[in-house]
Amino acid sequence: MLPDNVLFEGGAGETVRRKLLEQADVHTLLRLPTGIFYAQGVKANVLFFDVKPAREKPWTEKLWVFDYRTNIHHTLKTKPLKRSDLDEFVASYHPENRHKRKPTWSEINPEGRWRCFTYEELSKRDKLNLDIFWIKDKSLEDADSLPEPDVLAQEIADDLQTAVELFGAIANELKE
């Protein structure tokens, strides 16, 4: 499990992503809503991979991404994440034979949450950015679909609190 910034930050983050895709078969990324496992305001991801022996060619050939974040709202108190919320992911994951996976996303179904990206596609992304999303955020298009004001206010407060904590950690590192 890892926070979002690990998927897109440059420098050491990019180096780690590149090495991981080359030295392991990184096959699945599950994008989770804000505040599920980490501090409120932090978006979490679950990365599934198999460690492999060294070789010249990268082990990762395809990365399957399940977006259980866009247009999904959970709160720790009023609408917590339940196991049944992940049924579509579990059905798509197909652990017994990953090579038989079928995407739910297509140009005909742009709301499909399950999509595959090849290593070539990933390697062309700026800084090998794995913060991948494709579903349109309805809250940006339609004010009627915004969460209730109390949920929105809590999300903003959580994001601000997380930002303050992260800046505090950076300030402490700079002092050392």
Give a quick precis of the structure.
The chain has 176 residues and is α+β, with helices and mostly antiparallel strands. The protein has helices at residues 5-8, 12-23, 87-93, 119-123, 138-141, 149-175; strands at residues 2-3, 24-34, 43-51, 62-67, 114-118. 34% of the residues lie in helices and 19% in strands.
Structure description:
The protein has 176 residues and is of the alpha+beta class. The protein has a single domain (2-138), classed as Vaccinia Virus protein VP39 (Rossmann fold, 3-Layer(aba) Sandwich), CATH 3.40.50. It is built from 6 helices and 5 strands; from the N terminus they run E-H-H-E-E-E-H-E-H-H-H. Strands 1-3-2-4-5 form a 5-stranded mixed beta sheet. The longest helix has 27 residues, at 149-175.
Task: List the topology elements.
Blueprint: E1 2-3, H1 5-8, H2 12-23, E2 24-34, E3 43-51, E4 62-67, H3 87-93, E5 114-118, H4 119-123, H5 138-141, H6 149-175
Parallel strand pairs: 2-4
Antiparallel strand pairs: 1-3, 2-3, 4-5
List unreliable stretches of 5+ residues.
none
CATH architecture: 3-Layer(aba) Sandwich
Radius of gyration: 18 Å
Shape: globular
Per CATH, what is the topology?
Rossmann fold
Provide mean pLDDT, rounded. 83
Query: For the record, what CATH class applies?
Result: Alpha Beta
Order of helices and strands: EHHEEEHEHHH
How many β-strand stretches? 5
Tell me the β content: 15-25%
Number of helices: 6
Q: How is the main sheet built?
A: 5 strands, mixed
Classify the oligomer: single chain
Number of domains: 1
Fraction of helical residues = 25-40%
Look at the structure and name the CATH superfamily. Vaccinia Virus protein VP39
Alpha-carbon distance between the two ends = 28 Å
Strand order of the largest sheet: 1-3-2-4-5
